[in-house]
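Repro:
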Amino acid sequence: MSAMIGPSRRWLRAGLAGYTWIVVLFIYLPPVYLLLLSFNPGLLPSVPTLSNLSLKWYRALLDEARMLDALQASVMVAVVTAVVTTVLALLGGLAYRRMAANAQVGFFVFVVFPMFVPGVIQGLALSVILRVLGVTFSGWTVVAGHLLWSLPVVFIVLLTSFSVLRGSLAEAAQDLGASEWRVFWDITFPLIRPGIISGASFALLLSFNEFIRAFFLVGGQDTLPIYMFGAMNAGTSPTIYSLAGSTLLLSALGFGLALVGLTLLKTRRGWAHRAVQSS
């Protein structure tokens, strides 16, 4: 029996390893392929050879005025969405911790449920309501739609961060005369800061890449995903590939910098903890 278990486990591990590699290739191969296309100097999309690599279409991006306007609009919407979402999620998390158990369940469902509503339904419903109210569509209406999408995600991330808090820490600080604000700023905020950074990053990326809700709520200025969708349908020049490549590289750079920053922060905390213990 044991002789039969060994080969079966090897086959199982080999199957899981193969499945994992298939999933990884399915996720990363398309964006990498677009990145390679962006270095092709020709008009037809094809993977260039090493001797034929060119930054031609990256330089041409600077002449795409509509694209730059769409990029600026997407960045502004994403930044505003990230800030507002993080603040609302933080306030909601603080309120959630003070609620009774039964109230927590209802509040959690109320905040998280919009995440399960299809984006096309959310965008259409919100656009109809705003039209009835006579609201002019603009970047602010796009922010409103993106809040419905990003707030549940950031709220869940912050709740995970709140799990590291101990009630005894706040009680001890209050016994020493600290106000509610001092307890939050000196104890709660430093402990949940990684969650706040992570939640804000999630909100920024979710808003920057969101298409469906923005499609129903955008005003006169397109966001970058809407511009790219229209450019692809119009048979645009290969600058669309360089735009996708730039977005991919900037996203990778931002993720790398955030990872380095969190690593340095963790290392600094370790040094401080050891210094306190040694003293």
